Amino acid sequence: MTVKVLIPTPLQKFTNNQATIECTGSTIVELLDVLEQNCPGIKKRLCDDQGELRRFINFYVNSEDIRFLNGKETPLSDGDEVSIVPAVAGG
């Protein structure tokens, strides 16, 4: 199963400056493991030392926030699009 992952600009240094990557995985957790295999160092930017998703990074599956789905256990299907979006703050 192939999933399209949209990579934000600050993380593209781990993806050879690619804005999108085709990956596999049946859940967000599996997808993160595959991303780490293909793009070493990226997972540490997305997850804390306990393996939990960082609070300031948002994940969307087909435009749906995974916090309102099953979190990091959100299932993925062939053709899904996963967006990784860093939180923006300021005033």
Overall description:
The protein has one domain (2-86): Ubiquitin-like (UB roll) (Roll). A hairpin with a 2-residue loop joins β3 (57-61) and β4. A 5-stranded mixed sheet has the order 2-1-5-3-4, covered by helices on one side. The mean pLDDT is 94. The chain has 2 helices and 5 strands, in the order ββααβββ. The protein is globular and about 40 Å long. The longest helix is centred in the middle third of the chain and has 11 residues, at 28-38. The protein is α+β, with helices and mostly antiparallel strands and 91 residues long. This is Sulfur carrier protein. Pfam families: ThiS (PF02597). It comes from Halomicronema hongdechloris C2206. InterPro entries: Beta-grasp_dom_sf, MoaD_arc-typ, Mopterin_synth/thiamin_S_b, Sulfur_Carrier/Prot_Modifier, ThiS/MoaD-like.
Q: How many distinct domains?
A: 1
Q: What class, by secondary structure content?
A: alpha+beta
Oligomer kind: single chain
How many strand segments?
A: 5
Largest sheet: 5 strands, mixed
What is the strand and helix layout of this fold?
Elements (H helix, E strand, L loop, with lengths): L2 E4 L13 E4 L4 H11 L3 H5 L10 E5 L2 E2 L15 E6 L5
Parallel strand pairs: 1-5
Antiparallel strand pairs: 1-2, 3-4, 3-5
